[in-house]
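I would like you to sit down with the record closing this message with an eye to the fold:
=====
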Amino acid sequence: MSARKPGAAEMAALLAFHAIVSGAFIVAYLTGDEDSYGIHVFAGYAVLAAILLRMATGALAPAGSPLRLPGPSAGAVAAWLRRLVTGDAKARTERSPLTAWMAAALLAGVGLAAATGAVADFVVRVEPLHKQIGEASLPLILAHVALVFALHGLKRLPPGLPSRRHARRSPPSNRALP
């Protein structure tokens, strides 16, 4: 069952989640040194709390709700890519199954960075692992931003574009070059 479009309150909740996680992650990432450690810890716990709340909300939301966490499916991605390659205009405009994979990767990566940070507050030897996971989360976030822009651009393509398979080639010109 595909999710319906989010209502105003659901959209506000999703945007607030993104704002809190992205803002707090940026603050935590930039304040990991000793001089601003208190800010770093506060921002890290804000990320952890937001992710835990989002996971609980996503798990408890009824099927079809926009707040439900999408389940990644390799089969759905393969089918979507086949439709996209064959020129199915609807495949460009509907929600991509790649978003479910990206959501899972982000929740895991950023969630692990925040969770290991919380553990490192009590078990100092976890600190190097926390730092490595935090550093690895940044490329994941950048990949998410790139995917969002790519999918947005895909939706903006004109609807009548033929697929490569169906595109006509112009016949070669018999005119001699001057």
